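A quick aside before the break. I want you to see a complete sequence-to-structure record at least once, exactly as it would be stored in a machine-readable document. Don't worry about memorizing anything.
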Amino acid sequence: MEARTDVVLAAVDVRKRFGALAVLDGVNLDLRPGEAVGVVGPNGAGKTTLLSVLAGSLAPDTGSIVFKSRDVTSRGAADRCKLGIARTHQVPRPFAGMTVFENVLVGATAGGRHRGREAYDLCLEVLDRTELTQLANRRAEGLGLMQRKRLELARALSVEPAVLLLDEIGGGLTDAESAALVETVAGLRDRGIAVLWIEHIVHVLMQVVGRLVCMDAGKIIADGRPEEVVSQAAVIDAYLGGGP
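That is the input. The structure line, written in tokens, reads:
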């Protein structure tokens, strides 16, 4: 399978096993610039494993990962980050003992390609975009949940990614916080960043994504327009609690 030229990131027949368990079982998925794709499915469906394989922190057993028509399967997470693939984690992982600004600066310099004043200006822009400017000098370990999630997002954006992989960034937030997050992610999509977003809160995803993918037992069982996917019997049975 050859990746199309309008695809920024693709998983091609990706398979991953942990012992006897097939966590990813022939997954094919592509993502285009400025496209927001949501990924749903029950616990254990393989969603986060897929994100890890795309980001390069986990190698597939077979299959390939293609970024901008280049096979990057053998390249690790650090290299892919520098190429323009950034991710967040379900549990925020800020650098303790450092300020919010310093956390973002690490991303801009170590994960990105910026130095000096250029890196400083980029960090200020990212902090403004993620509504963290007023907290720039706050120690990261003292942040609340929404602020930590925004910092996780800010660090990913500091590498100026072409692809942003989000892992349940909306989990644990209030309705107002989720609404603010939706606005932020929609703005990133509108700037041309390709977004792949794993989220259990389906109604939040539906406000941002133009395409929804449902996984179950390591396979993609549905891929299409969100309102069509959530109405499919296989999706209802696997994820939304329908049918015996």
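Two observations worth writing down. The domain at 1-84+162-244 is CATH 3.40.50.300 (Rossmann fold). The longest strand covers residues 21-31. We'll return to this after the break.
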